[in-house]
Amino acid sequence: MTACSVPATVIDRIREIVGPGGYIDNSDDLAPYLEERRGRYFGAVPILVRPKTVNQVSNVVSVCAEAGTPIVPQGGNTGLMGGAVPHDTGSEILLSLTRLNCIRDIDPINNTITVEGGCVLSDVQSAAASVNRLFPLSLAAEGSCQIGGNLSTNAGGINVLRYGSARDLALGLEVVLPNGQVWDGLRRLRKDNTGYDLKQLFIGAEGTLGIITAAVLRLFPSPRETQTAFIAVQGIQEACDLLDQMQVRSNGMVDAFELISDTALDLVLTHMPQTANPLTNSHPWYVLTSLSASSQGQALKIALEETLSSAHELGNIHDAVVATSMEQGRALWRLRESIPEAERRDGASIKHDISVPISQIADFMAQAEASIQAEVARVRLVAFGHLGDGNIHFNLACPVGMDANKFLACGDDLNRVVNDIVSSFDGSISAEHGVGRSKRGEIRRHKSEIEMDIMERIKIAVDPNSLMNPGKVV
Ligand SMILES: Cc1cc2nc3c(=O)[nH]c(=O)nc-3n(C[C@H](O)[C@H](O)[C@H](O)COP(=O)(O)OP(=O)(O)OC[C@H]3O[C@@H](n4cnc5c(N)ncnc54)[C@H](O)[C@@H]3O)c2cc1C
Q1: Which residue, by CA, sits nearest to atom 11 of ligand 1?
Q2: Domain span at residue 311?
Q3: Percent of the chain's residues with pLDDT above 90
Q4: Are residues 133 and 120 in the same domain?
């Protein structure tokens, strides 16, 4: 048990600010908030505070600033880099946005929604749908992750190809700064060139610069026609060519274009009940794609079928199934969304969330696969992800018959091999999951001194006493 070093007076003042129901301080109830979902990080805090209003957030942060007590902001705790989990020193407090979850405004004419930081992503999608609009951010954790967390990690998901990542979907932010001041930047404007774009500083900052308490988000017309297809492709280059053709023929209506390796599909079919290969035979690579339009008609269907037919004639695809109902489309997407859980059930795995230019994915994959096989023989490559964004989850599963701990002990070496190849393609070693605690050291090997220096100077300027999520990112 770690000794608590948050002064009792600070804890008392926090309890007073939020009142009963606004905090958790007994160890059994705290436990789920102190663990990263992959079980890699565990923390300790004397109190988890759950403010209900922005004013309460501001007052809690002011008390902590005065006392020099560090704060770890937490949303849905679905992040994969350990950013939302406190250290095990007991000297920080955890601040959960869960109760700050009002939808403040929806403006269908301006195509914006103003939401509080603790709103769960799927609730924001539903609120948008209720006024016949689409909020396009979508990821497998959408039933638990929160908008504040999505913005703080600049979440990607399946629709980045068409709509951009969380960063592209935000027009304005409200942020409680490390000294407790509230910055009201909730502008609903698409154009505002009045100096530095401050909101972008806080997006992707993983809670190290302030607490996002509300955001203005962009909405789009609801799709009225959707086409989904699961396609066996000849190889990765052919998959990239298919994407290009599909964009041209559909006039850029491709929402999502996901790559799935046979090994990844096999894990799903083995470990997840009620799943089946939608195609008759197995193939090395598959693509799952969805296209949508806000008008109804045959145009999308025709574009998809023509693309598939000409790719088949060229020998670029082997087989395909086009969903004929929403339910069938959802079943195809379940295959893709179940991969992380199937990996977890399968056992030890070493994960990489990388991106390279789309035109170089095939070369990257060939080089990286050869190099990791040379490092650990018979390692199983479980590659899948957002091919349309150049973002591949290049995951490595323990070779059959190898001791899991022995495999995991190769993690640092394998990470270096993969990350160095990523860098040689001018790629990113963390395309969408962020840095958190996991990659804090490794980013220094891949970002230039100038980049690290600017990041550190921004951190010092906004949070001079390093009270916001210390020990994460920078
Ligand atoms: C099954 C599964 C699938 C996933 N798929 C994707 C995917 O496709 N794309 C993707 O990008 N990610 C994905 N993720 C990762 C994760 O869901 C995202 O990173 C998500 O955006 C995190 O949101 P959260 O509310 O859970 O944040 P948390 O995990 O609680 O926090 C993440 C970081 O943000 C900070 N933070 C949280 N809330 C705030 C706030 N209000 N103000 C300031 N800082 C804050 C925390 O301190 C932490 O550093 C997936 C995760 C799972 C479990």
Answers
A1: 155
A2: 225-340
A3: 96
A4: yes
